[in-house]
Write a structure and sequence with these properties.
Elements lengths: L9 H8 L4 E2 L1 E5 L7 E5 L2 E6 L2 E8 L5 H6 L2 E6 L5 H8 L3 H5 L4 E3 L5 E3 L5 E13 L2 E13 L6 E3 L2 E3 L6
Antiparallel strand pairs: 1-11, 2-3, 2-6, 4-5, 5-10, 6-9, 7-8, 9-10, 11-12
Organism: Orrella marina
Protein name: Flavin reductase
Keywords: Oxidoreductase
């Protein structure tokens, strides 16, 4: 048995998915002897607490795909509400433009991390990757994480939600 063909257009599917708000992350990696790569990703989720696992996906058409297929480790930065400019920068432009003027620091695990006050960050071992549909799926085992009290940047209905959360 298999799934029935969709009874909707890809535009309708994208619009329906856009009703689900997500956090905004920048994922970075650096292969030995190569410049760092990074991109804005909103397809990030927790998978397991024991072991600590997270999941994200990357378009097969991404210029960064070859690095994430090969790298052993990467860092997922959960952006704060004030980091809209960082999200925009890492969503377009060349590799060099994305990192230009952005402070970096090396983690204890040897990875380059954005030296910014992100809401959280996760240093991950690239545990498993596989292709499904038009995306590369990546399962990361978290080796280190930190968080701050900063409010997260939210992506919803095709744009960034810059409205602070209310309690």
């Amino acid at each position: 048995m298999s799934a029935r063909s969709p009874d909707f257009t890809s535009i309708a599917f994208r619009q329906a998915l856009g009703r689900f708000p997500t956090g905004v992350t920048v994922v970075t990696a650096c292969m030995p002897g190569e410049d760092p790569v990074g991109l804005t990703v909103s397809s990030f989720n927790s998978v397991s607490l024991d072991p600590p696992l997270v999941f994200w996906s990357l378009s097969l058409g991404s210029s960064s795909k070859s690095v994430f297929e090969r790298c052993e480790r990467y860092i997922i930065h959960v952006l704060s509400a004030e980091q809209f400019d960082i999200a925009s920068r890492f969503a377009s432009g060349t590799r060099e433009q994305r990192f230009e003027g952005v402070p970096l620091v090396r983690t204890a695990g040897g990875q380059l991390r954005l030296d910014l006050e992100c809401a959280a960050w996760f240093e991950c071992y690239n545990r498993h990757r596989f292709v499904e549909g038009d995306h590369l799926m990546l399962l990361g085992e978290v080796e280190h994480c930190e968080h701050s009290p900063a409010l997260p940047l939210i992506y919803h209905a095709g744009g960034y939600d810059l409205t602070p959360a209310r309690q």
